[in-house]
Amino acid sequence: MNTNILVTANGLSDRDLLARLDALAGRERAASAALVAHLAALDSRPSLYAAEGYGSLFSYCTQALRLSEDAACSRIEAARACRRFPVILDRLASGELTLTAVRLLGRHLTPENHQAVLARAARRSRSQIEALVAELAPQPDAPTSVRKLPTLPVAAPSSTPASRAPSVPPVAPPPAAFAPVPRPIVQPTAPERYRVQFTIGEQTHEKLRRLQALFRREIPDGDPGAIFDRAITLLLEKVEKKKLGATAKPRLPASIRPRTDKRRPDLPSAYVPSAVKRVAWQHDGGQCGYIAPSGRRCTDRTFLEFHHAQARAKQGPATVANIRLRCWRHNQYEAELVFGPGRRRSRDGTPPRH
Ligand SMILES: [Zn+2]
After folding, report:
1. How far, in Å, from the CA of 341 to the mean position of ligand 1?
2. pLDDT tens digits, 205-220
3. SS3 state at 278
4. Does the global pTM surpass 0.70?
5. Cα of 233 to ligand 1 centre, how many Å?
Protein backbone atom coordinates (compact mmCIF):
# COMPACT_ATOMS: atom_id res chain seq x y z
CA MET A 1 0.00 0.00 0.00
CA ASN A 2 2.79 2.40 0.90
CA THR A 3 4.41 1.55 -2.42
CA ASN A 4 1.22 2.75 -4.10
CA ILE A 5 1.44 6.04 -2.19
CA LEU A 6 4.96 6.54 -3.54
CA VAL A 7 3.74 5.87 -7.08
CA THR A 8 0.88 8.34 -6.60
CA ALA A 9 3.22 10.99 -5.14
CA ASN A 10 5.64 10.59 -8.02
CA GLY A 11 2.73 11.09 -10.40
CA LEU A 12 1.60 14.44 -8.94
CA SER A 13 2.25 17.73 -10.67
CA ASP A 14 4.72 20.11 -8.97
CA ARG A 15 1.92 22.29 -7.69
CA ASP A 16 -0.15 19.37 -6.39
CA LEU A 17 2.90 17.81 -4.73
CA LEU A 18 3.55 20.99 -2.70
CA ALA A 19 -0.14 21.33 -1.78
CA ARG A 20 -0.26 17.69 -0.72
CA LEU A 21 2.86 18.05 1.43
CA ASP A 22 1.39 21.12 3.13
CA ALA A 23 -1.81 19.22 3.94
CA LEU A 24 0.08 16.16 5.21
CA ALA A 25 2.33 18.26 7.49
CA GLY A 26 -0.82 19.85 8.94
CA ARG A 27 -2.35 16.43 9.55
CA GLU A 28 0.85 15.28 11.21
CA ARG A 29 0.84 18.31 13.54
CA ALA A 30 -2.81 17.72 14.42
CA ALA A 31 -2.13 14.03 15.10
CA SER A 32 0.94 14.93 17.17
CA ALA A 33 -1.03 17.43 19.29
CA ALA A 34 -3.81 14.85 19.76
CA LEU A 35 -1.26 12.22 20.82
CA VAL A 36 0.28 14.63 23.34
CA ALA A 37 -3.17 15.48 24.74
CA HIS A 38 -4.02 11.80 25.20
CA LEU A 39 -0.63 11.14 26.81
CA ALA A 40 -1.37 14.00 29.22
CA ALA A 41 -4.62 12.24 30.15
CA LEU A 42 -2.80 8.90 30.61
CA ASP A 43 -0.13 10.64 32.71
CA SER A 44 -2.85 11.57 35.19
CA ARG A 45 -4.04 7.93 35.37
CA PRO A 46 -0.89 5.93 36.22
CA SER A 47 -2.97 2.97 37.41
CA LEU A 48 -4.17 2.51 33.84
CA TYR A 49 -0.78 1.73 32.32
CA ALA A 50 0.35 -0.01 35.53
CA ALA A 51 -2.56 -2.45 35.22
CA GLU A 52 -1.44 -3.23 31.67
CA GLY A 53 2.02 -4.20 32.94
CA TYR A 54 3.99 -0.99 32.31
CA GLY A 55 6.04 0.51 35.12
CA SER A 56 6.17 4.04 33.68
CA LEU A 57 4.67 6.25 30.99
CA PHE A 58 8.02 5.99 29.20
CA SER A 59 7.78 2.16 29.14
CA TYR A 60 4.23 2.43 27.81
CA CYS A 61 5.27 4.87 25.05
CA THR A 62 8.30 2.88 23.90
CA GLN A 63 6.85 -0.63 24.27
CA ALA A 64 3.10 -0.37 23.74
CA LEU A 65 3.05 2.63 21.37
CA ARG A 66 6.39 1.73 19.74
CA LEU A 67 7.75 5.28 19.90
CA SER A 68 11.52 5.72 19.81
CA GLU A 69 13.12 6.68 23.12
CA ASP A 70 13.73 10.24 21.91
CA ALA A 71 10.18 10.58 20.57
CA ALA A 72 8.77 9.22 23.85
CA CYS A 73 10.83 11.69 25.93
CA SER A 74 9.79 14.75 23.94
CA ARG A 75 6.11 13.76 23.86
CA ILE A 76 6.03 13.00 27.60
CA GLU A 77 7.71 16.33 28.39
CA ALA A 78 5.23 18.08 26.11
CA ALA A 79 2.30 16.22 27.68
CA ARG A 80 3.38 17.33 31.17
CA ALA A 81 3.78 20.92 30.00
CA CYS A 82 0.27 20.72 28.45
CA ARG A 83 -1.22 19.47 31.70
CA ARG A 84 -0.05 22.71 33.28
CA PHE A 85 -0.70 24.96 30.28
CA PRO A 86 -3.29 23.45 27.89
CA VAL A 87 -2.90 26.44 25.55
CA ILE A 88 0.26 24.76 24.25
CA LEU A 89 -1.83 22.15 22.40
CA ASP A 90 -3.32 24.70 19.99
CA ARG A 91 0.13 26.09 19.27
CA LEU A 92 1.50 22.60 18.57
CA ALA A 93 -1.38 21.88 16.20
CA SER A 94 -0.96 25.18 14.36
CA GLY A 95 2.80 24.69 14.00
CA GLU A 96 3.60 27.84 15.98
CA LEU A 97 5.49 25.66 18.45
CA THR A 98 7.40 22.46 17.77
CA LEU A 99 7.71 19.56 20.19
CA THR A 100 11.40 20.44 20.58
CA ALA A 101 10.50 23.99 21.60
CA VAL A 102 7.99 22.71 24.17
CA ARG A 103 10.50 20.18 25.52
CA LEU A 104 13.16 22.88 25.95
CA LEU A 105 10.82 25.48 27.40
CA GLY A 106 8.41 23.32 29.39
CA ARG A 107 10.14 23.34 32.75
CA HIS A 108 10.78 27.10 32.60
CA LEU A 109 7.14 28.04 32.11
CA THR A 110 5.25 29.52 35.05
CA PRO A 111 1.65 30.71 35.41
CA GLU A 112 3.03 34.27 35.29
CA ASN A 113 5.35 34.03 32.30
CA HIS A 114 3.87 31.34 30.04
CA GLN A 115 1.74 33.62 27.82
CA ALA A 116 4.63 35.98 27.07
CA VAL A 117 7.21 33.20 26.68
CA LEU A 118 5.03 31.12 24.36
CA ALA A 119 4.35 34.21 22.23
CA ARG A 120 8.07 34.92 21.95
CA ALA A 121 8.81 31.27 21.11
CA ALA A 122 6.38 31.15 18.17
CA ARG A 123 8.02 29.90 14.97
CA ARG A 124 11.51 30.26 16.44
CA SER A 125 14.42 28.00 15.53
CA ARG A 126 15.98 25.67 18.03
CA SER A 127 18.96 27.96 18.61
CA GLN A 128 16.59 30.88 19.22
CA ILE A 129 14.62 28.77 21.72
CA GLU A 130 17.89 27.85 23.45
CA ALA A 131 18.75 31.55 23.69
CA LEU A 132 15.32 32.17 25.23
CA VAL A 133 15.89 29.36 27.76
CA ALA A 134 19.27 30.90 28.62
CA GLU A 135 17.48 34.19 29.28
CA LEU A 136 14.86 32.49 31.48
CA ALA A 137 17.36 30.40 33.42
CA PRO A 138 20.81 31.98 33.09
CA GLN A 139 23.72 29.67 33.77
CA PRO A 140 26.91 30.89 35.42
CA ASP A 141 29.75 31.64 33.01
CA ALA A 142 31.86 28.64 32.10
CA PRO A 143 35.19 28.76 33.93
CA THR A 144 37.97 30.22 31.81
CA SER A 145 40.30 27.32 32.54
CA VAL A 146 40.64 24.61 29.93
CA ARG A 147 39.75 21.16 31.16
CA LYS A 148 42.74 18.89 30.77
CA LEU A 149 42.08 15.59 29.05
CA PRO A 150 44.61 12.78 29.41
CA THR A 151 46.68 12.92 26.25
CA LEU A 152 49.29 10.23 26.74
CA PRO A 153 49.06 6.49 27.27
CA VAL A 154 49.73 5.45 30.84
CA ALA A 155 53.48 5.17 31.23
CA ALA A 156 54.63 1.60 31.09
CA PRO A 157 57.86 0.45 32.74
CA SER A 158 60.81 1.15 30.47
CA SER A 159 61.46 -2.59 30.19
CA THR A 160 58.02 -3.20 28.66
CA PRO A 161 58.19 -3.59 24.90
CA ALA A 162 56.56 -0.75 23.04
CA SER A 163 54.08 -3.13 21.47
CA ARG A 164 52.62 -3.82 24.93
CA ALA A 165 52.71 -0.28 26.16
CA PRO A 166 49.36 1.27 25.15
CA SER A 167 47.40 0.79 28.33
CA VAL A 168 45.11 3.80 27.86
CA PRO A 169 44.00 4.58 24.32
CA PRO A 170 45.38 7.90 23.13
CA VAL A 171 42.90 10.74 23.38
CA ALA A 172 42.70 13.80 21.14
CA PRO A 173 44.99 16.65 22.27
CA PRO A 174 43.44 19.19 24.64
CA PRO A 175 41.44 21.82 22.83
CA ALA A 176 42.80 25.34 22.68
CA ALA A 177 39.58 26.76 24.09
CA PHE A 178 36.68 25.52 26.16
CA ALA A 179 35.00 22.50 24.65
CA PRO A 180 32.25 20.36 26.14
CA VAL A 181 33.41 17.16 27.77
CA PRO A 182 32.36 14.21 25.57
CA ARG A 183 29.28 12.36 26.77
CA PRO A 184 29.86 8.81 28.01
CA ILE A 185 29.28 6.17 25.36
CA VAL A 186 28.25 2.54 25.81
CA GLN A 187 27.80 1.11 22.35
CA PRO A 188 27.55 -2.48 21.11
CA THR A 189 30.27 -3.14 18.52
CA ALA A 190 29.79 -6.87 17.88
CA PRO A 191 27.81 -9.69 19.54
CA GLU A 192 28.66 -9.57 23.27
CA ARG A 193 31.18 -6.76 22.76
CA TYR A 194 30.67 -3.14 23.82
CA ARG A 195 32.68 0.01 23.36
CA VAL A 196 32.64 2.12 26.55
CA GLN A 197 34.03 5.62 26.43
CA PHE A 198 34.08 8.22 29.16
CA THR A 199 36.28 10.97 30.51
CA ILE A 200 37.97 10.59 33.88
CA GLY A 201 39.54 13.15 36.18
CA GLU A 202 43.15 13.31 37.22
CA GLN A 203 42.61 11.49 40.52
CA THR A 204 40.80 8.60 38.83
CA HIS A 205 43.53 8.48 36.22
CA GLU A 206 46.12 8.22 38.96
CA LYS A 207 44.15 5.33 40.56
CA LEU A 208 44.06 3.58 37.19
CA ARG A 209 47.81 3.92 36.85
CA ARG A 210 48.33 2.48 40.33
CA LEU A 211 46.05 -0.47 39.54
CA GLN A 212 47.85 -1.07 36.26
CA ALA A 213 51.11 -1.21 38.17
CA LEU A 214 49.69 -3.59 40.81
CA PHE A 215 48.17 -5.86 38.13
CA ARG A 216 51.28 -5.85 35.93
CA ARG A 217 51.62 -9.63 36.32
CA GLU A 218 47.92 -10.55 35.85
CA ILE A 219 47.15 -7.90 33.20
CA PRO A 220 50.50 -7.35 31.47
CA ASP A 221 49.20 -4.84 28.93
CA GLY A 222 47.37 -2.83 31.61
CA ASP A 223 44.11 -3.12 29.63
CA PRO A 224 41.70 -0.59 31.23
CA GLY A 225 38.77 -2.83 30.14
CA ALA A 226 40.12 -5.73 32.24
CA ILE A 227 40.66 -3.44 35.23
CA PHE A 228 37.18 -1.95 34.77
CA ASP A 229 35.74 -5.49 34.85
CA ARG A 230 37.51 -6.30 38.12
CA ALA A 231 36.50 -2.96 39.62
CA ILE A 232 32.80 -3.23 38.82
CA THR A 233 32.72 -6.89 39.89
CA LEU A 234 33.95 -5.80 43.33
CA LEU A 235 31.57 -2.84 43.39
CA LEU A 236 28.61 -5.02 42.41
CA GLU A 237 29.38 -7.48 45.23
CA LYS A 238 29.59 -4.58 47.68
CA VAL A 239 26.34 -2.94 46.53
CA GLU A 240 24.45 -6.25 46.43
CA LYS A 241 25.71 -7.00 49.91
CA LYS A 242 24.43 -3.66 51.11
CA LYS A 243 21.09 -3.78 49.31
CA LEU A 244 20.31 -7.49 49.50
CA GLY A 245 22.44 -8.56 52.41
CA ALA A 246 24.38 -10.97 50.18
CA THR A 247 26.77 -13.02 52.29
CA ALA A 248 29.15 -15.92 51.93
CA LYS A 249 27.16 -17.94 54.49
CA PRO A 250 23.53 -17.13 53.84
CA ARG A 251 20.93 -18.17 56.36
CA LEU A 252 18.29 -20.51 55.05
CA PRO A 253 15.05 -18.56 54.53
CA ALA A 254 13.14 -21.46 56.10
CA SER A 255 15.02 -20.88 59.37
CA ILE A 256 13.77 -17.29 59.60
CA ARG A 257 10.78 -16.70 61.81
CA PRO A 258 8.50 -13.77 61.00
CA ARG A 259 8.79 -11.06 63.65
CA THR A 260 6.15 -8.74 64.95
CA ASP A 261 6.38 -4.96 64.90
CA LYS A 262 7.85 -3.58 68.12
CA ARG A 263 5.57 -0.55 68.13
CA ARG A 264 2.52 -2.37 66.77
CA PRO A 265 2.64 -5.90 68.21
CA ASP A 266 -0.59 -6.68 66.33
CA LEU A 267 1.25 -6.35 63.00
CA PRO A 268 4.13 -8.30 61.39
CA SER A 269 7.46 -6.45 61.40
CA ALA A 270 8.23 -4.22 58.40
CA TYR A 271 11.78 -5.58 58.44
CA VAL A 272 12.50 -7.84 55.46
CA PRO A 273 15.35 -10.24 56.29
CA SER A 274 18.27 -10.27 53.85
CA ALA A 275 17.79 -13.96 53.08
CA VAL A 276 14.19 -13.25 52.06
CA LYS A 277 15.31 -10.31 49.89
CA ARG A 278 17.86 -12.50 48.13
CA VAL A 279 15.30 -15.19 47.32
CA ALA A 280 12.80 -12.59 46.05
CA TRP A 281 15.51 -10.97 43.92
CA GLN A 282 16.55 -14.29 42.42
CA HIS A 283 12.95 -15.44 41.96
CA ASP A 284 12.10 -12.36 39.90
CA GLY A 285 15.52 -12.07 38.25
CA GLY A 286 16.16 -8.50 39.46
CA GLN A 287 13.13 -7.30 37.47
CA CYS A 288 9.65 -6.18 38.48
CA GLY A 289 7.53 -9.33 38.76
CA TYR A 290 4.12 -7.74 38.06
CA ILE A 291 2.18 -9.64 35.40
CA ALA A 292 -0.82 -7.94 33.80
CA PRO A 293 -4.08 -9.84 33.21
CA SER A 294 -3.04 -9.96 29.54
CA GLY A 295 0.02 -11.97 30.59
CA ARG A 296 2.45 -9.13 29.95
CA ARG A 297 5.20 -8.82 32.53
CA CYS A 298 6.62 -5.42 33.52
CA THR A 299 10.19 -4.95 32.24
CA ASP A 300 11.36 -2.33 34.77
CA ARG A 301 14.63 -2.94 36.59
CA THR A 302 14.93 0.41 38.36
CA PHE A 303 13.32 1.73 41.55
CA LEU A 304 12.70 -1.87 42.61
CA GLU A 305 11.04 -2.48 45.98
CA PHE A 306 10.16 -5.50 48.10
CA HIS A 307 6.42 -5.93 47.96
CA HIS A 308 4.17 -7.81 50.38
CA ALA A 309 1.82 -9.99 48.29
CA GLN A 310 -0.50 -10.07 51.31
CA ALA A 311 -0.24 -6.57 52.77
CA ARG A 312 1.52 -6.14 56.11
CA ALA A 313 -1.54 -4.30 57.40
CA LYS A 314 -3.48 -7.46 56.57
CA GLN A 315 -1.06 -9.64 58.56
CA GLY A 316 1.20 -10.45 55.56
CA PRO A 317 4.57 -11.54 56.97
CA ALA A 318 8.03 -10.77 55.50
CA THR A 319 8.59 -14.35 54.38
CA VAL A 320 9.81 -15.90 51.15
CA ALA A 321 6.27 -16.93 50.32
CA ASN A 322 4.94 -13.38 50.73
CA ILE A 323 7.71 -11.04 49.49
CA ARG A 324 7.91 -10.16 45.79
CA LEU A 325 9.96 -7.75 43.71
CA ARG A 326 8.06 -4.83 42.18
CA CYS A 327 8.98 -1.54 40.53
CA TRP A 328 7.90 1.56 42.42
CA ARG A 329 4.84 2.04 40.23
CA HIS A 330 3.57 -1.53 40.62
CA ASN A 331 4.23 -1.61 44.35
CA GLN A 332 2.12 1.55 44.53
CA TYR A 333 -0.51 0.17 42.16
CA GLU A 334 -0.98 -3.06 44.11
CA ALA A 335 -1.19 -1.12 47.37
CA GLU A 336 -3.95 0.99 45.80
CA LEU A 337 -5.81 -2.16 44.77
CA VAL A 338 -5.93 -3.15 48.45
CA PHE A 339 -6.26 0.19 50.21
CA GLY A 340 -7.73 2.42 47.48
CA PRO A 341 -6.14 5.33 45.61
CA GLY A 342 -4.32 8.19 47.27
CA ARG A 343 -1.58 6.25 49.03
CA ARG A 344 1.14 8.21 47.29
CA ARG A 345 4.47 8.42 49.00
CA SER A 346 5.69 11.52 47.18
CA ARG A 347 3.73 14.66 46.54
CA ASP A 348 3.86 14.60 42.75
CA GLY A 349 3.57 10.83 42.39
CA THR A 350 7.09 10.46 41.02
CA PRO A 351 9.36 7.70 42.29
CA PRO A 352 11.34 8.60 45.39
CA ARG A 353 15.00 9.41 44.84
CA HIS A 354 17.21 6.58 46.02
ZN1 LIG B 1 6.65 -2.89 37.33
Report:
1. 17
2. 889 989 988 898 888 8
3. helix
4. no
5. 26
